[in-house]
Description:
The chain is mostly helical. It has helices at 6-13, 15-22, 32-50, 63-77, 84-102, 133-136. The chain has a domain at 6-102. Helix content is 53%, strand content 0%.
Amino acid sequence: xxxxxxxxxLDVFGEAEIxxxxxxxxxTVPDAGYIVAVLADVDAEIDGYLRVRYALPLSAIPNxxxxxxxxxxxxxxxxxxxxxxxxxxxxxxxxxLKDLAAGRAQLDLPTPPxxxxxxxxxxxxxxxxxxDVDALVDF
Length: 139
């Protein structure tokens, strides 16, 4: 599961900026292959921080994490030097991910529902015993 999508990038930063950054062949359409590669890199970087404290894949993507992924993807789309504001948002995202990994911050994840019959004991079943104490007395 990707932490953000092209649609997320378009919603947050606008079509003009994303098109300018991702239209590699000049056809006025974002280059899907390039975007997939950038988003995969961002996902891998985020997973590296999250796997320290969270089971992956996450059951849901919190809005805060989606926003961080958008900032990171935008930064990675700049071919040479990103503007200072873009670089700072990327650094802030990485700082927050480091805080998550260290336990200084926490994701707002939905808690899974618990079963009503859950008593905390493991459920088990086994076949009927073939040998018991009475069968082994004369052995």
